[in-house]
Specification:
- With 240 residues, this protein is α/β, with parallel strands linked by helices.
- The protein has one domain: Vaccinia Virus protein VP39 (Rossmann fold).
- It contains 7 helices and 13 strands.
- The strands form 3 sheets. Strands 3, 4, 5, 6, 7, 8, 9, 10 and 11 form a 9-stranded mixed beta sheet that branches. Strands 1-2 form a two-stranded antiparallel sheet. Strands 12-13 form a two-stranded antiparallel sheet.
- Helix 1 packs across helix 7.
- The longest helix is centred in the first third of the chain and has 13 residues.
- The protein is globular and about 40 Å long.
């Protein structure tokens, strides 16, 4: 069933409640990237789903935002949300495969790449029986190297890449970023509670940059069960 939700920035998003709705990871990634986007920069969101990240960063200083998505149902939803908000001049939703970005875009044509990719390898964990959710959560149609290879192709020299992922895959993430000469510059770990192990990581990397990694203070989601911390409430009040 389709629902229309209103974000704090005033934009509306059309979602299918029976498929994949956006969660806290999209919100945290949008917040992590928002203030790092400079005047007139071109941004692309890889695996945009229903277009939530382009909508959340639409009021940034970006000149244009592209959302690339392989699932046709999501493309249709995202395009309708863009039209609903009259953002056709700023946001473009494109149907395409992350593994074939060279067929859709000119090399080194973006200043910023954002991605909230599938976290789990295809064999890991329980896959959701709903195909749309399985594709969003598991590396069914692309893997981590496919994404970072696409980032390498799309980013201009010294361009910025923002990603959210799982901490248990950090060795693989850093290895692949190094392989493609995309240098990790900023990292923020996210924990559900103060004394709990982090279960998300936010990463900013830059193409062809010098090595130096800034570690941000850990972000804690819940003060106690069902109660967000002040920081998370601040983030939510900006976006949803």
């Amino acid at each position: 069933m389709e629902v229309v939700d209103t974000l704090k920035n005033g934009y509306k998003i059309i979602q299918d409640s029976e498929k994949f709705k956006f969660g806290i990871d999209a919100i945290l990634l949008s917040h992590f990237a928002f203030n790092q986007i400079r005047n007139n920069e071109k941004v692309i969101d890889l695996g945009t789903g229903n277009g939530i990240i382009p909508l959340m960063i639409a009021k940034s200083r970006a000149n244009s935002i592209v959302g690339l998505e392989i699932q046709e149902e999501n493309v249709e939803l995202a395009k309708r949300s863009v039209e609903l908000n009259q953002l056709e001049e700023k946001i473009q939703i494109i149907h395409g495969d992350i593994k074939a970005v060279d067929k859709k875009f000119t090399k080194h044509s973006f200043d910023v790449v954002v991605s909230n990719p599938p976290y789990m390898i295809n064999e890991h964990g329980k896959q959701n029986p709903t195909e749309a959710k399985s594709i969003a959560r598991h590396e069914v149609l692309c893997n981590l190297e496919d994404i970072i290879s696409a980032v390498d192709y799309l980013l201009k020299p010294f361009g910025k890449f923002f990603m959210i992922h799982r901490p248990f895959r950090l060795p693989e993430i850093f290895s692949l970023l190094t392989k493609y000469k995309i240098e990790p510059k900023r990292m923020e770990l996210v924990s559900p509670f103060l004394q709990k192990e982090p279960n998300l990581v936010l990463i900013e990397a830059r193409k062809n940059a010098n090595p130096r990694l800034q570690i941000e203070e850990n972000l804690i989601v819940y003060e106690k069960p069902g109660i967000y911390t002040e920081k998370i409430n601040q983030i939510y009040s900006s976006f949803v």
